């Protein structure tokens, strides 16, 4: 039964002062930002990994190495667009994605509609196929100490 495939993604980035905070394709206003080789958009990275995993196409770091200067500071929306091309070249379309952002502060709920509309445009899928949720970790661990952000995503793709 090859019609449907699922995949999951998990990623972590450090949060530090003096960095921009890109999340879900948009820039948030906060005293800290995410550190990475790219723009460190953790939500986009887990979506990429979930999609690549579902299609059995390795992971984001395999396709876009964090040692390659070509990807230094790159807008993760460009990476997501390329991942969508790989998924579609392999004969798949996206059913839906469901993601969770783990972040102590700031609250991201007010920004979720904008993230969804941005990602829907980049991925060329309906907003109704994109779920974004958020949770704190109740002040526990690296997320709770505001040292980092993590995210999870599952994706369902189907062969067209
Ligand atoms: N960075 C975050 C974290 C959470 N939320 C929203 O707040 C609700 C309560 O969070 P708990 O960790 O206490 O469960 C959660 O359901 C999210 O809707 C948020 O917007 N931004
Ligand atoms: C996106 C890439 C590529 O620039 O860099 P980072 O922003 O460091 O992100 P990460 O999720 O750690 O790894 C994937 C990398 O290949």
TrEMBL record:
InterPro entries: MECDP_synthase (IPR003526), MECDP_synthase_sf (IPR036571)
EC number: 4.6.1.12
Gene3D superfamilies, per database record: 2-C-methyl-D-erythritol 2,4-cyclodiphosphate synthase
Keywords per UniProt: Isoprene biosynthesis, Lyase, Metal-binding
Cofactor: a divalent metal cation
Gene Ontology MF term list: 2-C-methyl-D-erythritol 2,4-cyclodiphosphate synthase activity; metal ion binding
Name the record gives this protein: 2-C-methyl-D-erythritol 2,4-cyclodiphosphate synthase
Organism of origin: Algoriphagus halophilus
């Amino acid at each position: 039964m090859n019609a449907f495939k699922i995949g999951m993604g998990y990623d972590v980035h450090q949060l530090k002062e003096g960095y921009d905070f890109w999340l879900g394709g948009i820039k948030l206003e906060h005293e800290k930002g995410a550190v990475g080789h790219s723009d460190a958009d953790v939500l986009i990275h887990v979506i990429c990994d979930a999609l690549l995993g579902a299609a059995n196409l390795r992971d984001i770091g395999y396709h876009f190495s964090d040692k390659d200067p070509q990807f230094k500071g790159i807008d993760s929306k460009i990476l997501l667009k390329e991942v969508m091309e790989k998924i579609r070249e392999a004969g798949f379309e996206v059913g839906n994605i469901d993601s969770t952002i783990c972040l102590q502060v700031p609250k991201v709920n007010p920004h979720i509609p904008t993230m969804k509309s941005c990602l829907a445009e980049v991925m060329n899928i309906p907003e109704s196929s994109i779920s974004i949720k958020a949770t704190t970790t109740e002040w526990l661990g690296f997320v709770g100490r505001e040292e980092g952000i993590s995210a999870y995503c599952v994706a369902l793709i189907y062969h067209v």
